[in-house]
Amino acid sequence: MSDGPEVLVVDDETRLADLFAAWLGADRSVETAYDGEEALEKMSDSVEVVLLDRRMPGLSGDEVLERIRERGYDSRVVMVTAVDPDFDIIEMGFDDYLVKPVSKDELGGIVEDVKQRTEYEADIQEYYALASKKALLESEKSERELEENEEYRGLASRVDELRGRVDATVSELSSHDDFVGAFQDLQSEN
Fold first, then answer.
1. CATH code for the domain of 47
2. Rounded CA gap, 98 and 100, in Å?
3. Less Cβ crowding at N or C end of the chain, within 10 Å?
4. Has residue 107 been placed in a domain?
5. Could you say which of 102, 123, 144 is where a domain stops?
6. Would the pTM count as exceeding 0.85?
7. Would the CA dihedral through 57, 61, 65, 66 be positive or negative?
8. What pLDDT, in 10s, does the model give residues 91-108?
9. Across 3-31, average pLDDT
10. 25-66 residue pLDDT tens
11. What is the DSSP string of 136-173?
12. Mean pLDDT along residues 77-91
């Protein structure tokens, strides 16, 4: 990972942006941008989470979000705004939405939640890829061949480890009941 900021706070209300940065800065590297153009200039691959206001003069938060996605950044984007959500949010590529005013605990909590989702997604992708390989080998090889193969035993161990991490993450994300409910719905369909 590069030396850039982990969190980018984007808000045209400079005092509010600075307050958010101060709240988050004790635990992570934070940078602020006071308009959309500056936000795009400060975007880098090191930015894991963008806290983005929607209503800003010049380039709006909606436009900044669109450009972040167009440029291929894999950052999580949380809209932190006084704009109440409407149906226009359906097509927007953000990860979460907070309506101002927000507390220090809410802001810190949402940053941790969206970062945790990123880790979860990477783990679940690796889990399914490795579980697929494991299942394929089990369908083609005898139990004895599998037991004697060191690479297979390592694969099986990694699959078990990832299953545990995925399960633990789902439990930790239970504060987002809607997320867990949706995930459980997906699991029950399979």
1. 3.40.50.2300
2. 6
3. C
4. no
5. 102
6. no
7. negative
8. 888 888 989 999 999 999
9. 91
10. 988 999 999 999 999 999 999 999 999 999 999 999 999 999
11. HHHHHS-HHHHHH-HHHHHHHHHHHHHHHHHHHHHHHG
12. 86
* 126 shares a domain with 96: no
Retrieve residue 133's tokens.
């390989």
Domain final residue, candidates 48, 72, 102: 102
Could you list the residue range(s) of the whole structural domain that residue 182 is in? 115-189
Report how far residue 165's alpha carbon sits from residue 152's, in angstroms, rounded to the nearest whole number: 20
DSSP-assigned letter for residue 87: G
Pair (84, 162) in one structural domain: no
Note whether residue 109 is domain-resident: no
For the chain, how many residues are written? 190
CA 91 – CA 57 distance, rounded (Å) = 22
**Would residue 47 count as lying in a domain?**
yes
Enter the tokens of residue 172: 């930790």
